[in-house]
Amino acid sequence: MKTLFDKIWDKHLVKTLDESSVVLYIDRHLIHEVTTPQAFTAIKAKGVKVFRPSQTTATADHNVPTKNQHLPIVNAASRNQVDTLTENCETHGIEYFGLGHKNQGIVHVIGPELGLTQPGMTIVCGDSHTSTHGAFGTIAFGIGTSQVAQVLASQCMIVTKPKTMRIIIDGELNHNVDAKDVILHVLKALGSNGGTGYFIEYAGRVIEEMSMEGRMTICNMSIELGARGGLIAPDQQTFDYLKNKERVPKGTQFIDAVDKWAKLKSEPQAIFDQEYLFSGEEIQPMITYGTNPGMGVQVEEEIPNALNNSDKKALAYMGFESGQSLLGTPVNYVFVGSCTNGRIEDFRKVANYVKGKKKASNVKAYLVPGSQKVLEQIKEEGLMDVFNAANLEVREPGCSACLAMNEDKIPSGEYCVSTSNRNFEGRQGAGAKTLLVGPLMAAAVAIEGKIVKL
Question: How confident is the model at residue 45, as a pLDDT?
Answer without folding.
Answer: 97
